[in-house]
Amino acid sequence: MVQLNKSDYKDDEGIFYDYEFKVYSLKNDSWRKITKLPHYLRFMYQFFYHLMHRRGYGVLAGRVLHWVMPLRIQLGPRNRIVGFDLGNEEFIEVSQPECANKNYL
Hints:
Blueprint: E1 2-10, E2 16-25, E3 30-34, E4 59-61, E5 64-69, E6 80-85, E7 90-94
Antiparallel strand pairs: 1-2, 2-3, 4-5, 5-6, 6-7
Organism: Gossypium davidsonii (Davidson's cotton)
Protein name: F-box associated domain-containing protein
């Protein structure tokens, strides 16, 4: 299970984030904070837990949990699809195709 909390999280390099990420371990029956975060996560405006109208949940595909992440307007008009690999506990960004109309995602 992955948990996202709104907070003033500061990573090991002193970079502030609006959110902190935690993973629940069934083996240890405890939550563990993920400290290795990509720097672009600090530019989130609002984190959406849904793709395809599945409110409250990410979408699991190939052991990676995915979310749509809208960026702040000054960083560009396109949203990102962010994934969290449950195997190695690392974040990934899913590349998107170039579209003639950038308003699709």
